[in-house]
Each structure stands twice: as structure tokens, then as C-alpha cells.
Predict the structure of Site-specific recombinase XerD.
Amino acid sequence: MDELEPITPDEAVQLYLNHRQREVSEATLRSHKSRLSHFIRWCNDEKDIKNLNDLTGRTLHEYRLWRRNFNGGIKPVTEKTQMDTLRVFIRFLETIDAVSPDLSDKVLSPDLESKENVRDVMLDESHADAVLGHLSKFEYASRPHIVLTLQWHTMMRRGAVRAPDLRDYHADDQCLEIRHRPETGTPIKNQEDGERMIALSSQICTLLDDWIDGPRPDVTDEHGRNPLITTTHGRVHVTTVTSIVYSWSRPCRIGALCPLNRDVDECEAACYEGASKCPESVSSHAVRRGSITNHLASDIPVEVVSARANVGRDVLEKHYDRRSEKSKMEQRRKFLRNL
């Protein structure tokens, strides 16, 4: 312990975040900061720990129990992500002589059943067709039309949707380049490994052309770049992409009847700001999950979907492929009929 250098919880977390800044995406960094904020609060408010040199396996276990039961309790999958991040953080502290060697080995994390770490929420094909059909008829080539079309047809993450510039769209070759440019505000998941060229259909190219020639605000972002998807203030923000998906995936937004029989005039979710509260709306990630599932259900090879969506096959099959076992069997049957 005499060889350790004193450090406060706040200082330690900031050092860790600075260390990881060039290694992970901005979104991952924000997630780690959010998870470790609970640890900081516990150290400062619950245990009055001013120096992380004092951490032991027992105190880390006490934190795990506190976090598990905090505010009514958290799900096992949330507990696992919290503790896994804490282990990485403690491992970093070992390298800077802030905690006892091998303390990270004492950070316990729950083992999950295979299905406990999988979410099933997704935008299904019929819902997607209804939303895109409405936008095509009443909001053609609008920002929501562009965002939702790209997400559904290309399986891109929301960070990739906002990343391209005008120069990255190649109308003649009917494709869109996705590039990792963190120094000018558009990092993408998997960084350079996430860079790729995405083929577009002639219909999507026509839609993009009409957006560029029509309602697209002709502005630059704070880095002097010319974003493909803009607002009057510059490049579309990732939270705007999220809000668009929540807003337009509500049944009432496209004129459909509310499955919950709510009065639109009284429903708190029947406005742009409250759209995420609608039980029928879905997140941007659910659009990606639904799109991947739909591509696979359309007999597109897993390898093609994996490359286009920029997701490993193992992750794809565990977290994105929501086809039933029976539907998989029927698809295989098509290829086996003549054997």
C-alpha cells in the first residue's frame, strides 16, 4: 500500500476517460462515464472514500450490492454491464499505481443466461412499410424520410446515418461511403473497422437527389464540412436521429388507430418531445434490429448482411436476428428441396 499514489474517485475516473478517449468511440466513452458516475456517487456520498488506494475486494462487493438494489433494483444485464465497466476501470487504476495489484480480479460480475442479454424489440416489416409509405406520400424527401429510409434499407447505426458528407454520396455509382472522422465530429462505431461503402438502390438515390436538390438546408457544420443530412443549424445531431425514429414510429403519427385506444388530445406521448413515452414507438436501434432481421428473412446471406450492417456474425445472430426457429427451418427447406 505504501507504493500506491493517492487519488480521488473523481480524478481517477477523469484520468481513465482521458486514457480511453482515442481507443473507443464517443458513444462508448459516454456510456463508461455514465456507468462510472454511480461509482463516484457511491464513493463520495455513501462510503466517504476520498482515496481509491483504500479499495478492497470487500468494498467493491459492497458497491455491487448497492448498485444492484439502488432505486428499486436494476436488471441483471444492467448489473453486468456496470460491473464489467468497473473491472476495466480498476484494471486501468492498477497500471497507474492507484489500487492494489490484481484488484480487478476481485470485481464480480453476474453470469447471464444466453437469453438474458438479448432484447427483442424491433420495427417489423409491416410497420416499417407503413411509416415509409406515409412519409413517401405526405413528407417526401423530408429529413425524417431520409433518416428512416437509410436506417431501414442500409441497417446503419444512427451515428453512421449522420456521418456522411455530400462528397460521400456517389450518385453515379449508387453508393454511400461511411468514414470514421472523429477529429471533425463524426466518429462511427468500430472506428476504421466500421468504414465501408454501402450500395444503394436507384429508388434511394432518387430520394437522396430530391433531398439534396430540394428541402436540404445548404449549410456547413462547425468544422466547415458539408453534411449530407442537415438541419438549419448544421449537421443533424444523433439525438435528432433518435427523436425522429421515436416520433414517426408512433401509430398516431401516421394516422393509424392507437392500439391502446388513447385519446390523442390527452396522450402525453402524442407530441414530438414525448414520443419516446409511447409504448408503440421504437428506438433507432430497434429499426436496425428489425432491418437486419428482415434482410435475413429475405434469404440474403448472413455474410452479406454482416458486412453491410458492420456487425460480426456471432453478435448478429445473438443480438439482431429475431427470426423464429421455425422460420429459419422453412428458409433452409427452400434450398434443400432439390437435394
